[in-house]
Amino acid sequence: MNINLILNLLKMTVEASTPYLLITIGGVFVARAGVFNISLEGCTEFAAFAGILFGFLSGSILVGVLSAFLVAIALNIVFYLFTVKWNADLTVIGCAVNLLAACIPACLLQALFGTRSNLVATSLIDPMKMKVDVPILRSVPVLNSIFNHQTRITYLTFALVIFLIILMYRTKFGIYVRVTGENIGAAKSVGVKTNRIKLLCLLISAVTCALAGLNLSVEELGIYTINMTANRGFICLSAINCGRKEPHRACVYAVIFGFARALQTILNNYVPVAISSLIGILPYVTIIVALLIVEIPNARKNHLRIFRGA
Amino acid sequence: MDTIIETRNLTKKFGDFTANRNISLEIEEGEIRAIIGENGAGKSTLMNMLYGILQPTSGQLLYRGREVSMKSPKDAIELGIGMVHQHFKLSPSLTVYENIVLGAETVHSHSAFGKKVPGFLIDTKKEKEEIQALIDRFDFNLNIMDKVSDISVGAKQRVEILKMLYRDVDLLILDEPTAVLIPQEVDDLIERLIALKKSGKTIIIITHKLNEVKMCADNISVIRAGELIGTVPNDSTTTNESLAEMMVGRQVLLRVNKSDKAAGEKVRFAVKNLTAVDSDNKKILNNISFEIHENEVVGVAGVEGNGQTELMLALSGLMEVREGRVEMEGENICGLWPDELRRKGIGFIPEDRYQQGLCLDEKISNNIIAGYHELSPYCNKGIMNYRAVRENSRKLVKEYDVRLSADLDPTVGCLSGGNAQKVIIAREFSRDPRVLLVSQPTRGVDIGAIEFIHNQILAMRDRGTAIMVISSDLSEVAGLADRIIVMYHGEITGCFKADEVNFSELGLYMSGVKHMSDQEIQQGKGGGRE
Amino acid sequence: MKGDTFRRKAVNIGIKFCDIVIPLILAFGVGAIFSLICGCNPFTLYGYIIKRSFLSVGGILNTLGYATPIIITGMATSLSLKAKVFNMGVEGQVFVGAFAAALAGYMITGLPTFLHVTLCLLTAAAAGALYAAIPGVLKARLNVNEVVTTIMLNSIATIVTGFLTQSYLGTGDAYAHTENILQTARLVKLDSKYRCTTAVFIALIIWAFVFFLMKKTKFGYDINCIGKQVEFSDAVGMRVSRKIIWIFVIGGSFGGIAGATEIMGVNYNFVNTFSANPGIGWDGFFACILAGSEPIGVLLYAIVFGALRYGALAAQTGLGVPLDLINIVKSTLVLFMALKLFANHRSAFQDLLTRARKKNKAALTAEGEDVL
Q1: Contacts of residue B337 in chain A, CB cutoff 8 Å?
Q2: A33 to each of A28, A170, B95, B173, C351, how far by Cα in Å?
Q3: A67 or B405, greater pLDDT
Q4: In 3D, which of C108, C239, C130, C244 has the Cα closest to residue C181?
Q5: Which pick of A106, A217, B99, C294 has the fewest CB atoms within 10 Å?
Q6: Which CATH code fits B3-248?
Q7: Span B255-345+433-530: which CATH code?
Q8: Residue C319 forms contact with A (CB below 8 Å)
Q9: Are A305 and B89 in contact (CB < 8 Å)?
Q10: Where are the domains positioned within chain B?
């Protein structure tokens, strides 16, 4: 095995883990507050689309970035209103949002540009220039090849993950989030406004999903393609499940899944073309295996014959 | 003495239903006031209004002579009103001190530009010190770093009280505080309450247990059907009987009439060395053995959370056990599923009526056959006969006196607690089971229905059924049972004949202070027959 | 008393009606906005869709053709949704079933038509059932979240069938597909010009079967209870985890058949894109959600979805309006429908309701601890 190959694999792992980590860490807050949100997928897709579309239309990356945040936040506010405020079924609304995320971009692309597959904004965005050179890292041999020349959002992600873990465990807000999910009556009885907590969690998740979407479309490629999120939202949902809604554990799983995706990309270069498309199942199989590893001991411990439901 | 809180013509309506009507109540500063009434009389509604959870439809609320309107519990706490709920509002994964400070955390403060600004992180060190001081001051005997999921029920209640004391409330409302405590813990609580009163706090306790009221209250207010019947001072002229009459509005029998038919000789149902573990591999049932004869009611007493729930789950086939046998007329039925057990002729009245006993969103007719719905005439080769189901329902509703309003076949969610329980009773009793396992038969049930349910259980006994009754209400166990076994920490600690038992003695076994030897337990078992 | 019941029934029907009509108006309103963005008068668009899909025999046949698999997948989903289990894997089961049918269609030779068709359908059903058993067992035995697993398995199904058509089992053409199935394995078109095949009868049989299963059998009674209260169902001996696996398996076999009807009636070979975006599994899922898992509703919505599918395709060529527009209408419809604005917020209509019901409800809240 070639050392460069390994370094390359790790570098790609960092790259691939970025959106996973972002969606996961935001999703953990939502999940912890007791909201099972499957629209992470749709939210990320919308942000990825909005970033490129508005950036392209206005000719300014900044506008693209801002609108991605706005769209994601607006979407999660709608989600909040429908599910928390008006008590509609979480899964149903989540599904509907995901379906919207699959058809609105396609429809708009068709209407505005006459194609329903992608929007190329490389004239505006040069993905190569999106990589940042960190001078301090240059002198450190291994770390340099893994962590240097990543995108801004990647670096931001590391900071954000640490910040959000502290937020969860060391602040009032974090405690309120945990109590809201665990015993909503306890939270309410001491005057915690649980709906507001849920809203704030959804907003955090909106911001992280927007960052993830921007990372995918604006930073990495400068192109938006239909179904760009490619199930990342669901993958992160499994990361959250596997990590039992603990942010640090969920993040570990996010990185594992990122590694699986990186491995898939690398392997693609080394296997015959014939089976390269089959390698695509690697991330999904990893997830199912991870879910099994997490859940089998749990099921062993359970002596109740009562089905536990969702 | 000043009046601390006063209500004037307080009324609360839910739609057309009036839960509280024109309640005018004055509570003096520094007294212990008991508010008593039947289930559903409107006590909780009233207290929820005093604590800002519900807002009155009309009427005024005065705190220290000033009219107030509370939008949420937060407002109440700011005024100085605290409440300890019957079902604790604690977060099990957090520690004792985290639960106490919940909602009022201390954050690090920093000085910037010569001013103090609140910081971002919680100052856990300071919080711990404060809570430790508070525990020491009131002598509450708690370890601040324990997780709430690991502490006893009594300790959880102390955490709840401290939660309010930490917020420095003057008026403390306790909702059914003794429902889950053993007699000794009740005494301890009452002492604490009297000590708190001496330190200047005002206390309201809501309860329907008259003995405790007599022990600590200064004045007693009685609520019936949403109206305040009256307030009486707690002195020698006030008796349990007179209070009960005020509560119910008619004379009530405080004891059940048991027939003098003796328990049978034949062992119908036997549990032998039953041991089960929970998900952490901790023993929740430890070597449980007992027998039930024909014509016999065995009562299981104990503080909630000492394995009664698990015993019921294990016996009803909902939990796998590690070892032991359950025998019905000599045949081992341990490990069978609930449907198989039902086919053997065992009936169940589960502890959690609304989770396990009934399907709330389903019609009465479908609830009243559940578990037996595969039998003819309701079901033939997998095809349901809903006409037979409805006919059966009509018959049983009449027979078991389930009271319905306009709708003939409403969903069970529309029924009151007592009527809902009657649906379960009808379902299980109408199959004429050979063994009947009953858990908390009258929890949350009004007095009228309690009488009915007790009589039904005793009628089943006289027909020869072997019955086990688990209840956290000692007087219920003592009233129904021929023999009483006591559970503590998943073990049987004692076995008594019901007519020889004394409650404070039972309390010692319930709290694990006393423990009979296996032989003594065996003898106690023999006792029921002789 | 009688008048009271009547009035309550009337109010209930009124509320249900509002909860269907108002979301419809809102959803088509949102669709209209997008239609304007696409430069097309919404009235022209909707008129066109209705005209093409309903106002001619051919249109109706096409509509039914598109609705056929949706009816089946809708009923497949309704079983699981009735039990409050979110089987979102019907799409994957459709792929597996379609692929199995395509293989059985050309690999098995020398059978008479009827036998061959039956055999293909059974193969597809078995494949779908097996594939659905995976999330079923995971859910029932290990409590793995079924939403996550089914969606992962959908992706795996698409990738694996795509890979197989490209490589070992394909024809080697530039555009990947399997061999055409034999004449004996094909379902007959009712009119050769239009999409509708005899599969529509298969769909109706399945519909009737599920209807009967849900309304008249013990299994249906059990599913109903499981959906309403799981713990209760276990406590009265329904053995929920076993039933959950059955629900998945039955649903999966229908999903497989839905895929097979597309291959055997329309495509004649397996192409990885046969289930257009969003797939027929998803359309069934949404039809089922909109109908609240009620069989008659599923049938109606499936036909509406079929009409929208065909109408949208026609509008794409006829008016140049993107096909996805109609999906926007669908998803906004699901959004607003899920709100059940009137049913959930009855308090606004309290005056119209009977007294007794409210009294009981209120008494419950008053007694119940969790007034919070």
Answers
A1: 305
A2: 8, 16, 19, 29, 36
A3: A67
A4: C108
A5: C294
A6: 3.40.50.300
A7: 3.40.50.300
A8: no
A9: no
A10: 3-248, 255-345+433-530, 358-431
